[in-house]
Automatic annotation (TrEMBL):
This is SAM-dependent methyltransferase. It holds the Pfam family Methyltransf_11. Keywords: Methyltransferase, Transferase. It comes from the Bacteria. InterPro entries: Methyltransf_11, SAM-dependent_MTases_sf. The keyword Methyltransferase applies.
Length: 244
């Protein structure tokens, strides 16, 4: 698994940087009602997206479990709380919106995903909106040779699968309220980069835990042609849910 504290300083440079963050922030803002006054961004990481969730009248707060990531977010001027998204340090019905960008796919335990969605519903005011990415890993390398190799090792069901997230949302009193897609600029992956990530444990949320052999998978990726040529950039999907 990724050690987010140790990777905080270099994290953004390896994940698309500002262009990807700008695209994500604009997509999130496009799903928020115009009168949204407060937004809590769960798993805010370095704050590169959170700091761009900016429009007149909107106050944004971040939350992350990693001290290293929270330090980076604070450096970007994001007010941030250090806590788990499965147990938010807020009273009921306190905010107008909650966002979770590239968070749910990291939670391999379905119970943890359900807990995050439930907590989002709990802290939202009636009429408030929860916005989250879904099917994150499925947006990468679609139809490419990298995707074909990964397919044999992929989990049967991703933790952020859209249908599952929608079901968790319904249990939390949240109903579907829209969706959006955006480009993952700078995220076209090379076979060698994916192989290195597999060996470093960065794909634990993607890979089937039973019988997965990282070295074997990395070796297969290393046999692909043009191993240092990026494949196509991913397209990510956001789903919005409103508190009833």
């Amino acid at each position: 698994m990724v050690d987010y504290d140790s990777e905080a300083d270099a994290y953004d440079a390896t994940r698309g940087g500002v262009p990807r963050a700008e695209a994500a922030a604009q997509a999130v803002l496009g799903l928020l009602p115009h009168d949204t006054a407060t937004l809590l961004d769960l798993g805010c990481g370095t704050g590169i997206v959170t700091s761009r969730l900016d429009r007149p009248g909107l106050r944004v707060f971040g939350l992350d479990a990693s001290p290293g990531m929270a330090r980076m977010a604070l450096g970007r001027g994001v007010p941030v709380a250090l806590a788990s998204a499965t147990r938010l340090p807020l009273a009921d019905a306190r905010v107008d919106a909650v966002s979770a960008v590239w968070l749910l796919h990291l939670l391999c335990d379905p119970g943890a995903v359900a807990a995050v969605v439930a907590e989002a519903g709990r802290v939202l005011r009636p009429g408030g909106v929860f916005v989250t990415t879904v099917d994150k890993d499925a947006g990468h390398d679609v139809g490419s040779d990298v995707d074909a190799v990964l397919a044999a090792y992929r989990r049967a069901r991703a933790s952020d699968e859209a249908d599952a997230v929608t079901a968790y949302a319904a249990s939390a009193g949240l109903r579907p309220a829209g969706r959006a897609r955006f480009r993952g600029h700078g995220q076209g992956r090379t076979p060698n980069a994916v192989a290195q990530g597999v060996l470093a444990g960065r794909y634990a949320s993607l890979l089937e835990p039973q019988g997965t052999a990282p070295a074997e998978l990395a070796a297969r990726l290393g046999t692909l042609p043009a191993p240092d040529t990026p494949r196509g950039e991913p397209t990510y999907e956001l789903r919005a849910f409103v508190r009833t």
